[in-house]
Amino acid sequence: MPCPYKNEPHRFHTVQQCLSLNLTDPFSFTGMLRFIQRLLAQIQGETLRLLILAGIVLLVWGVFSPIGTLVWWLQQDIESLGLKQRRLQTALPDGNPNSSEADLLTCYIIFLTGVGDFSANQLAPGEERFLEQLEAQHTDCVVVSDVFPYSAANESLEGRRLLAPLWRFAEQARGWLENASVLIKIRNLWRFAISIDRRYSPVYNFGTATAIVDRMDAAQPIPNGSQQPLRLILIGTSGGAQVALGAADYLEQWLNAELTVVSVGGVFSGTNGFDVVDRVYHLQGEADWIENLSYILFPSCWPWVVGSPFNQARRQGRFWVYDTGPHAHDGATGYFGQAPLDHGDRLYVDLTLNVVNQLPIWSEPAPSD
Question: What is the distance between the alpha carbons of residues 320 and 280, in angstroms, rounded to a whole number?
Answer without folding.
Answer: 6
